[in-house]
């Protein structure tokens, strides 16, 4: 038998060290270095082993064995690609109280209503607590099997006994593998539990959904290898002050990894929102000064949102700049461009810029809408409610091209907007049925925005 030696390895990045340290020098993580036993290699090579099954040409494998099945929730299927693939392992991570368990219980109900069996394993709550939530959200079905277990071996026994097509484990941090060292929720335990569940999914064809916790930084708790072991990684996001919830794809071996699904948390459960653009608009027939409408891209999804600005004269030496839902540094840059290039005097005024409905936008494509909203408020001249503005603003006052301009304009046309202001020189084909005006700088954008309302001068 080969001799073993003691080494130390970082559970996050895999860096191997000669002695224990509190902080990994490679990735900078604290408390991630564990002691491991490394066998000393007796020979340079390893002996060959006769395979149990011979390798075959790829054309002999049936692709229909991995066809995705719909979950019954359109927004979730959108993020997954086209549904759940048999034998796949999905990791759903999110902050406490965001609604992960409620969403998965609704998924189990939709799955069971199609005549398929779902097994729900809860390690954080009792079976009675889960039943109460199911009563409240209407997720009671005889094809849903429920078990309150935290021992991995018992969970595998439940899976063998029930033979479900979908198994939900809530959560992976509460599962305990008796053959592995470490505390519950630790790096070693999470890796062992996940490895066993992935092996179960691949060998039996059961689709498994794992619920994961997140750290204070928003990253998935546990070793970084956890995300490499699973097939799909989803992030469930939401603001406690808003009912809107979003499922965002981070990794997907069966589809696009930048899709977004929208949901709304209500008292009777969680409901999908196929058309979320209406949540980010202030519905009013007449225009209001200081308001501009734009279209942002969240992954592959176009969302129409509204930017509101308020400019108020002040006598204090340092005027206030308050920004909500936007990048404060980028808003400050746009204010400087407006004052330097177009003479919009905001240096001695308090400026407040915010999005509607709790929408968070970080991309530069909404620069033009921010500039028009601030300029509209300074002169107290409302912009037409039927116009959207898309474009990045440079320091010279130019309007630069943005990605996905055609898809953005198409979304605006679908919602009934009649005029779109876009950067000049876009290579994408614009849809018909909406008037598109290409502009090269801020001055041209201002004139285009108010072309139907007479002259407009800052």
From TrEMBL:
Pfam families reported for this sequence: AAA_25, ChlI, Zn_ribbon_LapB
Entry protein name: DNA repair protein RadA
UniProt record similarity statement: Belongs to the RecA family. RadA subfamily.
Motif stretch (RadA KNRFG motif): 251-255
Domain RecA family profile: start-end pairs: 65-214
Keyword Mitochondrion: no
Record: residues binding ATP: 94-101
Biological process per Gene Ontology, one example term: recombinational repair
Gene3D superfamilies: 3.30.230.10, P-loop containing nucleotide triphosphate hydrolases
Function: DNA-dependent ATPase involved in processing of recombination intermediates, plays a role in repairing DNA breaks. Stimulates the branch migration of RecA-mediated strand transfer reactions, allowing the 3' invading strand to extend heteroduplex DNA faster. Binds ssDNA in the presence of ADP but not other nucleotides, has ATPase activity that is stimulated by ssDNA and various branched DNA structures, but inhibited by SSB. Does not have RecA's homology-searching function.
PROSITE patterns: RECA_2
Any one of the GO CC terms: cytosol
Domain remark in the UniProt entry: The middle region has homology to RecA with ATPase motifs including the RadA KNRFG motif, while the C-terminus is homologous to Lon protease.
GO molecular function per UniProt: ATP binding; ATP-dependent DNA damage sensor activity; damaged DNA binding; hydrolase activity; zinc ion binding
Annotated stretches, region: Lon-protease-like: 350-458
Domain of life the protein comes from: Bacteria
Keywords per UniProt: ATP-binding, DNA damage, DNA repair, DNA-binding, Hydrolase, Metal-binding, Nucleotide-binding, Stress response, Zinc, Zinc-finger
Keyword check for Mitochondrion: no
Natural source organism: Williamsia sterculiae
């Amino acid at each position: 038998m080969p001799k073993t030696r003691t080494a130390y390895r970082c559970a996050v990045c895999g860096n191997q060290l000669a002695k224990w340290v509190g902080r990994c020098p490679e990735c900078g993580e604290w408390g991630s270095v564990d002691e491991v036993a490394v066998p000393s290699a007796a020979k340079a090579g390893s002996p060959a082993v006769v395979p149990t099954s011979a390798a075959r040409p790829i054309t002999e494998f049936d692709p229909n064995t991995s066809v995705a099945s719909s979950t019954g929730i359109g927004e979730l299927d959108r993020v997954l690609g086209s549904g759940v693939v048999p034998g796949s392992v999905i990791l759903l991570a999110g902050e406490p109280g965001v609604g992960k368990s409620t969403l998965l219980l609704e998924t189990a109900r939709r799955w069971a209503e199609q005549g398929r069996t779902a097994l729900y394993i809860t390690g954080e709550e009792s079976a009675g607590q889960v039943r109460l939530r199911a009563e409240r959200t209407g997720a009671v079905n005889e094809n849903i099997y429920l078990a309150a277990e935290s021992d991995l071996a018992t969970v595998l026994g439940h899976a063998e006994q029930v033979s479900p097509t979908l198994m939900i484990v809530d959560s992976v941090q509460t599962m305990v593998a008796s053959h592995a060292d470490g505390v519950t929720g630790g790096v070693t335990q999470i890796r062992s539990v996940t490895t066993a569940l992935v092996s179960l999914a691949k060998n039996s064809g059961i689709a498994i959904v794992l619920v994961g916790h997140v750290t204070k930084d928003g990253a998935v708790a546990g070793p970084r290898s956890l995300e490499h072991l699973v097939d799909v990684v989803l992030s469930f996001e939401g603001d406690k002050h808003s009912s809107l919830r979003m499922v965002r794809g981070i990794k997907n071996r069966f589809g696009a990894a930048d899709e977004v699904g929208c949901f709304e948390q209500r008292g009777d459960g969680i409901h999908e929102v196929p058309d979320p653009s209406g949540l980010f608009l202030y519905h009013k027939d007449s225009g209001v000064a200081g308001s501009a409408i734009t279209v942002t891209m969240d992954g592959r999804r176009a969302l129409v949102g509204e930017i509101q600005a308020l400019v108020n004269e002040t006598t204090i030496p340092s005027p206030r700049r308050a920004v909500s839902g936007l990048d404060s540094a980028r808003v400050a840059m746009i204010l400087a461009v407006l004052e330097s290039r177009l003479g919009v005097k905001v240096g001695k005024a308090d400026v407040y810029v915010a999005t509607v409905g709790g929408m968070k936008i970080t991309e530069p494509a909404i620069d033009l809408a921010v500039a028009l909203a601030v300029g509209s408020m300074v002169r107290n001249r409302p912009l037409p409610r039927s116009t959207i503005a898309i474009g990045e603003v440079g320091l010279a006052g130019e309007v630069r091209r943005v990605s996905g301009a055609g898809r953005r304009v198409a979304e605006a046309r679908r919602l009934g907007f009649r005029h779109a202001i876009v950067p000049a020189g876009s290579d994408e084909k614009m849809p018909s049925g909406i008037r598109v005006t290409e502009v090269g700088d801020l001055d041209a954008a201002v004139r285009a925005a108010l072309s139907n309302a007479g002259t407009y001068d800052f």
